Amino acid sequence: MPFFDSHCHFDFTEFDADRMQLWQHAMTLGVQGLLIPGVGPVQWPAAQALSRQLSGCYFALGIHPWWIDKTATDPLALQFYAYQMSLLLDEDKANEQPRCIAIGEAGLDKNIDVPISRQLDLLDWHIDLANQFHLPLIVHSVKTHNELIAHCKKNPPLYGGVVHAFSGSYETAMQLINLGFYLGAGGTISYGRAQKTRSTFARVPLESVLLETDAPDMPLSGEQGQRNSPENLPRIAQLFAELRNESPETITAVVWENNRRLFGIF
Predict the structure, then answer these.
(1) Angle of CA points 216, 2, 93, to nearest 5°
(2) Are strands 181-185 and 137-142 parallel, antiparallel or unpaired?
(3) What is the pTM for the complete model shown?
(4) Which one of 145, 224, 263, 266 has the minimum C-beta count within 10 Å?
């Protein structure tokens, strides 16, 4: 069965030395596609270029919360970035198979030294663009699920989205699912200490889950400090199947369909 890595920073420098060989090997393991999230305007053209070089590679456009202080976010700058996005999307749509399939990685993070009010303003900017371009939203949420839920009730992403690397309770997960979000599961489920997250993913509807590596970050248990890779996605799928006591074939087939439904690919 095929796998799709719904969140992989495959454009990062950690992969510069062996990116092509690694992707060829991942494909032999059944990984037939991946999505490169946007982190900032400087990175967007490179992500677009890489999506054209690698079979099954797609990209998104956004400003990651960690990059806010590295990127001017005054109104004039955001107006320019929105214009830059529209140009890249127009260019992408001219191709036989468009590769930009989402807006983001956007979101909220209480672990960074940026006021939540400023992060919420930028989240609104992303939601408005996702709605304007008819694309789903990729969300990064760290210790901010309550704020995210409250905000998206007021300004909902009309084309759905995914809360990547979800870590939270079942009750929070269901609130997000009811708002139209999928939940991204990755290497965190391999850690015995992540009981709340493991319990949540054992219970939520399989039809609301995507699998991801978040490579080169979020390594599996026992591999801390090592570079994560899209090659590990089949292992994550196997762990997820064991967690839910379901067959790997069922997990892979349903998750593949979830990606198709959210991102409009395949």
Answers:
(1) 75
(2) unpaired
(3) 0.97
(4) 224
